[in-house]
Specification:
By secondary structure, the chain is an alpha/beta fold. The protein is built from 15 helices and 19 strands. The strands form 3 sheets. The chain has an 8-stranded mixed beta sheet, with helices on both faces. The protein has a 6-stranded antiparallel beta sheet with strand order 10-9-19-18-15-16. The protein has a 5-stranded mixed beta sheet with strand order 12-11-13-14-17, with no helix packed on it. Strand 18 and strand 19 form a beta hairpin. Helix 1 packs across helix 11 and helix 3 packs across helix 5.
């Protein structure tokens, strides 16, 4: 393992302190370690340790717009007592925006940076973009105290993370009033560590002055040291870094390396026959004779055969057949009236079973933000992710510059025309676009008194 995310229950602090402690322990054991601050409520490490506002997650997010590079990561970190720290803006709104923009690159690339990584994701909710970092991490630690109110919050937190596929383990602060092992058993996760409730020593992990020798002899530091050793596997770190390096240094074919078509044809041609093999197509060997002069009179050519001489025998041998009558042209369909699409009704059916009617008069926006027309509780989609709009008599899906993109029938799109039964996928949510013929639906209801979804045999009729 190489990437550890740290969160906490809704009312229990400690995620930032534990993440900082792990990164500092790793900085003493490895050549380099990384601490990433991805708390959507805003960063505190810069304030605690007196770091500069920049570089930070904001500058990193700007740099990776043009693609990920290791330099884009390390050039935006600051030194924090021996570990490289990627801080987050203090303003919660800015922090949330830059986290959402940076999460795709971080989730994909952090496992291969070749160093142990601690990610402080703070206190999460269902709409937090940092949930994707927990799912991508090798282990997500949930830090909590053992009071009954904290335990109840932990249960919800664990279930939310496990639903995303995260590997969750528990870290408690103190061992009273409730037994940490019983809490872990109740939550159905492994108890990774029980940290001593030592506020004086913990202050050193929050930016206060401290005596390094005395600090490292404390029980809190020694417990963090054991936890850090248990979480990280150096062999995994080296193997992932080597795999990334191999891909990055893979040689690119040069023009000299490209095999020509002639070389391929020559390699595929059969081998030449043996010297003593009989060849039926070989020319007959002739005795050498004197070369005729260039002014020699050429041999007279036979008279050419005329077209009439060839056509006459053929006409007598082959009977003349009467041409088959041409098929009657298919009747042209009657022109469709101008209001033929007025009775069509469009809707989206989401993967959670909800059905949403689409308004032909104005765009319908889908996303996480409460101002969207369709609010989707999916941490992988953007606040305003995609919109469905009717233009020139056709329905279109338009991606609104989302972080993770939108796919139409498996292909990533920016703008694409929709047809009946097309599938859109954004984040972990799928949606089916449906066109309903209201006139046919009414006739079907009248005849059968049952609800069936009528088929539209020509989806393109939606376009004017």
């Amino acid at each position: 393992m190489s990437v550890i995310a740290v969160t906490s229950s809704r009312t229990s602090p400690g995620a930032t302190t534990v993440a900082t402690g792990l990164a500092l322990v790793w900085s003493r054991r490895f050549e380099r370690s990384l601490l990433v601050e991805a708390d959507p409520s805003g960063g505190v490490l810069g304030l605690r340790f007196g770091l500069a506002p920049s570089p930070s997650l904001a500058t990193f997010g700007s740099d990776v717009r043009n693609g990920w590079t290791p330099d884009a990561l390390w050039s935006n970190t600051q030194e924090l007592r021996g570990t490289a720290c990627l801080t987050s803006p203090v303003d919660g709104r800015l922090a949330s925006a830059w986290i959402e923009r940076s999460v795709p690159a971080l989730a994909e690339q952090l496992p291969g940076v070749g160093v142990p990584v601690a990610i402080d994701v703070g206190q999460l909710d269902d709409a937090s973009a940092s949930l994707a970092l927990c799912a991508a991490a090798d282990t997500t630690l949930v830090v909590t105290r053992t009071e009954i109110a904290e335990v109840q919050s932990v249960l919800f937190q664990v279930r939310r993370l496990q639903a995303l596929g995260a590997n969750v383990e528990l870290v408690t602060i103190g061992s009273a009033p409730n037994d940490p092992a019983e809490i872990a058993q109740l939550a159905g996760v492994r108890l990774a560590a029980v940290l001593p409730d030592d506020a004086t020593t913990a202050a050193g992990l929050k930016g206060d002055d401290f005596n390094p020798g005395r600090f490292r002899r404390s029980l809190l530091w020694r417990t963090l040291d054991a936890l850090a050793s248990d979480l990280v596997d150096p062999a995994v770190i080296e193997e992932r870094a080597a795999r990334v390096a191999a891909v990055a240094t893979k040689p690119v074919a040069t023009p000299e390396d490209v095999v020509s078509f002639a070389e391929v044809a020559e390699a595929m041609s059969p081998p030449p026959p043996a010297a003593d093999a009989v060849r039926f197509d070989a020319p007959v060997a002739m005795a050498p004779t004197a070369t005729a002069p260039l002014t020699a009179t050429p041999t007279a050519l036979a008279a050419p055969i005329t077209v009439a001489e060839v056509a006459t025998p053929l006409a007598e041998a082959v009977p003349v057949l009467a041409p088959a009558p041409a098929p009657a042209p298919a009747p042209m369909p009657a022109p469709m009236p101008a209001d033929a699409t007025a009775h069509l009704f469009a809707r989206l059916v989401l993967s959670d079973g909800s059905v949403h009617a689409l308004d032909a008069a104005q765009p319908v926006v889908l996303g996480r933000h409460r101002d969207c027309d369709v609010v989707v509780a999916d941490a992988r989609i953007s606040r305003k992710h995609v919109q469905i709009v009717r233009q020139h008599g056709c329905w279109f899906a338009e991606d609104l510059g989302s972080s993770n993109g939108t796919t139409h029938n498996g292909q990533r799109i920016t703008t694409h025309q929709l047809a009946n039964d097309d599938e859109l996928v954004f984040g972990r949510t799928a949606a089916r676009f449906e066109l309903i013929d209201l006139g046919q639906l009414t006739a079907t209801h009248t005849a059968t008194a049952t609800h069936t979804r009528p088929e539209i045999h020509n989806p393109e009729m939606e376009c004017a």
